Amino acid sequence: MRTVGALVYPNFELLDLFGPLEFFGWNADAFRIAIVAPEKGPVPSNMGPATVADLSLSEADHFDVLLVPGGWGRSIPVDTDRIVPWLGLAASRSTHVLSVCTGSALLALTGFLDGRRATTNKALFSWVEEKRPEVDWQPKARWVRDGTLYTSSGVSAGMDMSLAAIADMIGLEAAKGIARGAEYQWHQDPDDDPFAASALV
Amino acid sequence: MRTVGALVYPNFELLDLFGPLEFFGWNADAFRIAIVAPEKGPVPSNMGPATVADLSLSEADHFDVLLVPGGWGRSIPVDTDRIVPWLGLAASRSTHVLSVCTGSALLALTGFLDGRRATTNKALFSWVEEKRPEVDWQPKARWVRDGTLYTSSGVSAGMDMSLAAIADMIGLEAAKGIARGAEYQWHQDPDDDPFAASALV
After folding, report:
1. Which domain holds residue A193?
2. Number of domain units in chain A
């Protein structure tokens, strides 16, 4: 049994979080889910609907799988002073680290991605890249795996990436079974990135 | 501005709810989101993580867009005694009604779908069909539109359906823009149902 710990913060992006958690949560024998946030209790998303944090940052310092959704982009602020120090330690202590969309921008600020291959939202690619040029940012990738670090492109790409990470952890057939159960057409090729062009403009 | 009211109940399915809400919520000029449940406050999903209801059933009786996620299937109970009477009235008073996955089973119990074309989760198709044979259940459809009623196949299909409903409400280009922004490969053909076969066994 692995614990998937998802970091949330005000203005997290709904599908960045709940797409991956749908797939991890599908197999309750393999994964249990915890939501961690600066404070316990309700945390509002970008779009209004809130989720509820089970743990505050001071109550957890690593997970088997650490998931970092996006939601931070352009004008949406994130309380990086509180989150970044925790995230740097939690990422270094967790077995698998996954980020979705601009979640990789937060993760990059910790230095955890320095010298590693990673990707992010394609429409915000330059904005993310400038935050931490030390990262080997990939402009064309649905998602990137570097060891046990997985970073995905924008929003929906987090679902394809999560199924790939699940396949690496519990097997390809198990991941395919989850996709089939959720009637999800899994795009299995990490290099097939139909939204890459917007990173190049 | 239209209000999207999403009905939640304990054990709702995460992606049935948050896939559609990601896309509706993307355009804050066109849609605002409300979560309604038997009681206000946190409501746990199938997979653990909770959302927070803004309204109890007694505080709302219709929406511009009523969204009914699934989560009820086989052994997972739903408090139909409380939900079904409310849902029958709310569906008849709402302008657009959308259900995802086994959300259509709940909606069918109200009689609102009688004589209308609808679909549901393909792995649970027979289970749903038997609940209300008066519905013209479609075994092969990613989603079905019948007037301003939209019902989708399992879990992920709710995202394709919601983009189609958004296109009908605010235009095809607006819907395509949302899909592009969320880096989502929208399957636009409601008749292309790669999971239909499981409804026929």
Report:
1. 2-200
2. 1
**For residues B155 and B121, is the Cβ–Cβ distance under 8 A?**
yes
Question: B71 is written with which tokens?
Answer: 């989560």
pLDDT in tens, B182-196: 999 999 999 999 999
CA separation for the pair B83, B67 (Å, rounded): 14
> Which residue of chain A is at minimal alpha-carbon distance from B28?
A47
Cβ–Cβ below 8 Å for B155 and A195: no
Tell me whether residues B47 and A182 touch, CB distance under 8 A.
Answer: no
pLDDT (tens digit per residue) in A9-60: 999 999 999 999 999 999 999 999 999 999 999 999 999 999 999 999 999 9
A57: domain CATH number? 3.40.50.880
Q: Chain B window 12-51: which residues touch A at a Cβ cutoff of 8 Å?
A: 13-15, 17-19, 21-22, 24-26, 28, 32-33, 35, 42, 45-51
Q: What angle, 0 to 180 degrees and rounded to 10, lies between the N-to-C axes of helices B172-181 and B14-26?
A: 120
ipTM confidence: 0.96
B182–A155 CB contact, under 8 Å: yes
Query: What's the predicted TM-score (pTM) here?
Result: 0.97
Q: Which amino acid is at A87?
A: L
